[in-house]
From TrEMBL:
<dbReference type="GO" id="GO:0046914">
    <property type="term" value="F:transition metal ion binding"/>
</dbReference>
<keyword id="KW-0408">Iron</keyword>
<dbReference type="InterPro" id="IPR007167">
    <property type="entry name" value="Fe-transptr_FeoA-like"/>
</dbReference>
<dbReference type="Pfam" id="PF04023">
    <property type="entry name" value="FeoA"/>
</dbReference>
<dbReference type="InterPro" id="IPR008988">
    <property type="entry name" value="Transcriptional_repressor_C"/>
</dbReference>
<feature type="domain" description="Ferrous iron transporter FeoA-like">
    <location>
        <begin position="24"/>
        <end position="94"/>
    </location>
</feature>
<dbReference type="InterPro" id="IPR038157">
    <property type="entry name" value="FeoA_core_dom"/>
</dbReference>
<protein>
    <recommendedName>
        <fullName>Ferrous iron transporter FeoA-like domain-containing protein</fullName>
    </recommendedName>
</protein>
Length: 109
């Protein structure tokens, strides 16, 4: 299966003096960490649909299995591998970890 090639926009803003603000991406997540997909940045729409077909979509929680030499994530029962330039375009949010007391005593409604 061929993966489309594309150019990433990196560098200065066209309308400002600074660089793009740092946002957490899949590339920044540590192995063993669970993260929630927030969105995609600088990926063509057809490639976003390609990722969504494999279950990688906003709101989905994934576990990072490895970061070197490529980023490997587990999406339900499937493992997906991404080159660094792709992993840097997948925006994530870390899943908050429960404390041991929350695991044994869940909040009552």
């Amino acid at each position: 299966m061929l993966i489309p090639r594309f150019r990433l926009h990196r560098g200065r803003h066209r309308h400002g003096q600074g660089r793009h603000p740092a946002r957490p991406t899949l590339w920044h997540a540590s192995p063993g960490q669970e993260v929630t997909i927030v969105g995609f940045e600088a990926l063509p729409p057809d490639f976003q649909h390609y990722l969504q077909a494999y279950g990688l979509m906003p709101g989905r929680t994934v576990r990072v299995l490895a970061q070197r030499p490529v980023t490997i994530v587990q999406v339900e029962h499937t493992e997906l591998a991404f080159e660094p330039q792709i992993a840097r375009c997948i925006l994530v949010s870390p899943v908050s970890e429960k404390t041991p007391s929350e695991e044994t005593n869940p909040p009552t409604p």
